[in-house]
Amino acid sequence: MSKRIASCILLFLLPLTLSGCWSKFEINDRTFISGVFVDLADDSSTVELSILTILPNRISSSASGGVSTSGTIPYGVVTKTGRTLSEAFMSIQTDLTRRISWGQTRVLVVGRDYAEKGMKELLEWTSRQPSFPLKAHLYVAPRKAKELTTLTPVYEQSPSEVLSEFANLHTSVETDMKQFLQGDNSKLGNAVPLLMMSEIPMVSEKGRLSPWAGKNGAALFQQEKMVGTLDNEAAYLVAWVQQTPRYLIYSIPLDGGYCSVMLEELKSKIRPHVDGDRIRFTLSLTGEGKVLGSDTLLDITNSDTLHKAEADLNSKLKKELQDLLRKTQKVQADIFQLGSLVEWWYPRTWEQLRENWSSEYREQVSFDVNVAVTIQHLNAEGKPYWMID
Fold first, then answer.
1. CA distance 77 to 54
2. Packed helices 120-127 and 85-95: angle between N→C axes, nearest 10 degrees
């Protein structure tokens, strides 16, 4: 073939690469889901799916922050029921004028009844959605997940944005769908943030009682089922072990008052040891504290007083962590996924324990707990201001 003919063929084929996309779907014909809420229906035999989407036609580009200035709510909620999540989803899509897109999903909330019954279908459904973000934050509602769509987003544009920002602040336990799926697939446990809801009078709502949401500890999961709960104090320790929070604040009783300490540089270390049929984990927590305030008559700058405060805090944290670990063993929920450490350090042992790890975790595992917190900074003030000469 001559060079001339080859060049002509090449010139003929090149325009074919510029044909563009033949399966495009205009962005104006899509609706982007920011929050998914899953419940058991009232009859407990069907599932209830709710989606929260932002309404672009109600957001003013000229308004500060791009929020609605007409007093209308800039987001919508659609709820449908079905024998399966797929049926409920199809019912929602049928009634919408736009095609649903999962790309902007930030939070997934499950109702408490649904979590206690088991989330196997939800895990299967979300993992098979190619566009569903596995980094979406997972929460458990105190009652119905759908109730969270009614919370008042005082500082944000929508309820799902409020829940997303909870996780972004790194103040307590955090779990996303990827982490949960990994734990479930390995037959281990998970700790998922548990929410609370109440009604309080809000100045921003002209004093009216309005729904308010916040974190309220954590829910314990053994694989896909919720088997227990933790209070806020225990949830903070879980977050510390997972090295999630940037800081924690504790108050230590001292001589009729309290010394408040901010702990930073929070680190944890876990090391497994196999001894015959028994498995022992050494769990160590470290942190550096600085005094935020002290209303005790004791001189906090005195080395003996400072060391007593450190010893009291370490003793308190050690006991709380031991109580937390015993509780997880009682419900057979390996929320720190310690089994994966056994697999890493002792793969042959893990092969023998894998199938019955939940019972092995309860019966054959023991813990050595070490807490070493040092108070190194007194901030700008050495003594309480009323003791300064």
1. 9
2. 60
